[in-house]
Design goal:
This protein is about 75% helix and about 0% strand. Helix 3 packs antiparallel against helix 4 and helix 6 packs antiparallel against helix 7. The chain is built from ten helices and no strands. It has one domain. By secondary structure, the protein is mainly α. The mean pLDDT is about 95.
């Protein structure tokens, strides 16, 4: 029964905004009011460079990876594991510590999927990498990888509840990237 505490703990960990913390520590502007206004690694790169972006990316990935790995170590049932995956992801998008205004969730979604199964994470990561190498557009790479993630979960893990969660994450990522999609369709996405 105590395993259910992992779900709110995952949400709280997901609510820690790596972008905001990194920018504060490095003396950079608040990413919520500079650049695109998105507290994520891509915007941190715009306002603070590669080092700040890399630290942000790693932090966002780890806050998804750590709670899911802990759930795996504790060998929780699939329902709790799925809850931990979703909670960490939603914590990033709607962080309680930062007025429920978070990032788009790409790095955190990678972290939770990597924690759920390293082969799923590898599949998502390789998909992102290949699409990025072909088109040089990060948002497109993220959208394709997210769209294929439920298929990878199904083929590799076969865990029905996690397939649904991966599909929900993909849907949310697509919705959070709607302005990127509009720019992609207009040929204006950088």
């Amino acid at each position: 029964m105590i395993e259910w505490l992992l779900v709110p703990a995952a949400y709280l960990l997901g609510s820690i905004s790596s972008a905001i913390i990194v920018c504060r520590v490095m003396g950079l502007p608040d990413p919520r009011v500079e650049g695109s206004g998105n507290p994520g690694a891509t915007n941190v790169m715009r306002i603070g460079g590669k080092k700040a972006a890399a630290i942000t990316l790693l932090g966002d990935m780890l806050k998804g990876l750590i709670p899911v790995l802990l759930a795996q170590i504790l060998d929780v049932d699939p329902g709790i594991l799925s809850g931990v995956v979703l909670a960490a992801f939603l914590g990033h998008l709607y962080p309680v510590f930062f007025g429920f205004a978070g990032g788009k969730g790409v790095a955190t979604s990678f972290g939770v999927l990597l924690g759920a199964n390293w082969m799923v994470g590898l599949g998502v990561g390789l998909t992102w990498f290949v699409v990025y190498k072909l088109f040089k557009i990060s948002s497109l790479s993220a959208l394709v990888a997210a769209t294929l993630a439920p298929l990878y979960v199904y083929l590799i893990m076969g865990m029905q509840s996690l397939v649904y969660v991966a599909a929900l994450i993909a849907f949310i990522l697509i919705w959070r990237h709607k302005t990127n999609i509009q720019r992609l369709l207009a040929g204006e996405e950088k």
